[in-house]
Design a protein that fits this description.
Elements (H helix, E strand, L loop, with lengths): L9 E7 L2 E8 L6 E5 L12 H5 L4 E5 L19 H14 L5 E5 L3 H11 L4 E6 L14 H8 L3 H11 L2 H9 L10 H11 L4 H11 L1 H17 L3 E6 L7 H5 L1 H4 L4 E5 L6 H16 L1
Parallel strand pairs: 3-4, 3-5, 5-6, 6-7, 7-8
Antiparallel strand pairs: 1-2, 2-4
Length: about 290
């Protein structure tokens, strides 16, 4: 059986902000754009099942952020890893592709990165999907406790403790499987690829820098919430309700600033696309239509 040209995924690079950004693309350029932003510790690979399901309705663009996936950051770029820097690169990426109007799908790290873009250019955003992408203090679960300790005291000992606890295959596998009713539905290449890419020279230090900088995202929450309140773009807030990092009160909180937001909690964990890609694709089509 031949794959329709519109749903075939293209794997490409573009130079943006001194970075060679890898991205996945599918769908006709004449369709509405949906920008897919991944989270930790994944990459655009997490959208591998979702993209073909939406390619008849959207022009899909899924970049790998610096420090993740197959995006290449030259040593001479002297990149300083922070969420402000990720957003700056994302903005340059969007401009390099000439994207002037787009809906945002944000997950995990993709939320504070993409929402910086939304705050800077609210006129560009046509719709918003948050799949376990947090923007409210009440959305932070107990699983953040070791990283909060690191925020409070960014000592070498606390930095090492976070790295030892989080940056390994078993911890990544746990993030994928925790709260999943049927773990046999989670493809092992997902967490295995993430863990393998984490082992590249210098990458663990990058991740520890981003863990520390995540505290600055909380300071930006009022700006993100103002964006929801002032634009009230069509919004689907669809979360795995067993996520230990971003818990259900964070999903419900979106309605405080956008009463029209559609909020749904799914019987799964953090990486909801691993088990509910078809359902999420259908709901995106219905809510963003």
């Amino acid at each position: 059986m031949n794959t329709p040209a519109s749903s075939a995924i293209r794997y490409q690079f573009v130079e943006a902000d001194g970075v060679r950004v890898f991205y996945r693309e599918a769908g006709s350029p004449g369709l509405p754009v949906l920008l897919l932003l991944h989270g930790f510790p994944s990459s655009s690979h997490q959208f591998r099942e979702l993209i073909p399901l939406l390619a008849e309705r959207f022009h899909l663009i899924a970049p790998d952020l610096p420090g993740f996936g197959f995006t290449e950051v030259p040593a001479e770029r002297d990149y300083r890893y922070s969420f402000d820097a990720l957003a700056q690169t994302l903005g340059a990426f969007v401009d390099a592709l000439g994207l002037r109007r787009y809906a945002l799908y944000v997950f995990d790290y993709g939320a504070p990165t993409g929402l910086r873009l939304a705050v800077e250019h609210p006129e560009r955003v046509t719709g918003f999907v948050s799949q376990n992408g947090n923007a409210y203090l009440e959305g932070l679960g107990d699983a953040w406790a070791p990283i909060r300790t690191y925020w409070d005291e960014p000592s070498a000992a606390n930095r090492k403790a976070v790295g030892d606890a989080v940056l390994n295959l078993e911890a990544t596998r746990w993030q994928y499987l925790h709260g999943v009713a049927d773990p046999t539905r989670v493809a092992p290449e997902s967490y295995t690829l993430d863990a393998l890419l984490m082992e590249r020279p210098g990458n663990k230090e990058i991740q520890l820098d981003l863990f520390l900088d995540y505290a600055n995202n909380l300071k930006r929450y009022p700006q993100f919430q103002a964006f929801f309140r002032e634009t009230r773009v069509p919004s689907l807030i669809i979360w795995g309700k067993h996520d230990p990092f971003f818990i259900p009160p964070g999903a419900e909180a979106f309605k405080r600033d956008n009463p029209d937001a559609v909020v749904e909690l799914l019987d799964t964990g953090h990486f909801a696309l691993e088990t509910h890609a078809a359902y999420i694709a259908r709901r995106i089509g219905e809510v963003l239509a």
